[in-house]
Amino acid sequence: MVLGYNRHSVMVLLMCLLVLSSVRALVAAAGPTRRFSNGYNIADYLAKSMGFASSPPPYLSLAPSTARLVLTARGSGVSYASGGAGILDSTNAGNNIPLSKQVQYFKSTKSQMISKLGSRTTNLLLSKSTYLFSVGSNDLFVFATAQASASQNKSAADQQRDVATLYTSLISNYTATITDLHAMGARKFAIINVGLLGCVPAARLSSDGATGACLDGLNELASGLDDALASLFASLASRLLGFVYSLADYYGLSAATFDDPGASGNRDQHAFWDRVHPCQRGAMLAAQNFYDSRPGRYTAPINFKQLAYTSL
Known about the structure:
Layout: E1 4-5, E2 10-15, H1 23-27, H2 42-49, H3 59-62, H4 66-74, H5 99-117, H6 119-127, E3 129-134, H7 137-150, H8 156-183, E4 188-192, H9 201-205, H10 216-239, E5 244-248, H11 250-259, H12 280-292, E6 299-300, H13 304-308
Parallel strand pairs: 2-3, 3-4, 4-5
Antiparallel strand pairs: 1-2, 5-6
């Protein structure tokens, strides 16, 4: 999650899959960006599209100083992101800052902003913010790995019940997160759904017979969660006062890219930087499509740019 302000809008990013590092590392002309990428990631490109010079620095680097935290929150922003985190606290537990803890850090930031800026100014800033979520992939990877180990001892019906239980837990936690942020003043939400997980290199390398084919089961698992997310946010928009959202279809964009790889114009000739993360070129194309493409193509009901400029 990142909180920042410019003359057009405030941006808050809640990124549990992508890692946001320090601004100094990001803007270094010749050095590494410290991303799970060969350059910038999707969050970096979205931040730039929204008018920020770079992605904001991490919360934990700012927390020791209230004055610095509040000043940065109003200016360049604050990142609460944690690589490996998921919607569930149990996902890769002990190796990341879970989503629930990120929200608590944001709550603490709000309290400190109020102490320095007052309630009215703070609430106005938060209501103008855009809250960006990219989370869920790690939950599905962990679940799929566990299912593969236990599948020989479970019937198909039992496995389907396990999937249904997983979806219920994920949507319940996601709902609690959104409603908590809404109660704290958040109004504008940008969500990136789960991509084509069965086609990432890690999945294809583990495919049966080592054919390198996509894992249909993992793609179906991702598609099912994405359907549930679409229903969730449509429901929230109908019952939460002032709630506005844009849902980006990373799954659909990934599928279109794999169906027609030549259309991507990938100068690096690779879609991925490592076993699971996209390369810089892929991140840039995703951000461009989510931010400014025609609504209904890869975003709904509006795109991220329209969301950022929405006046409430």
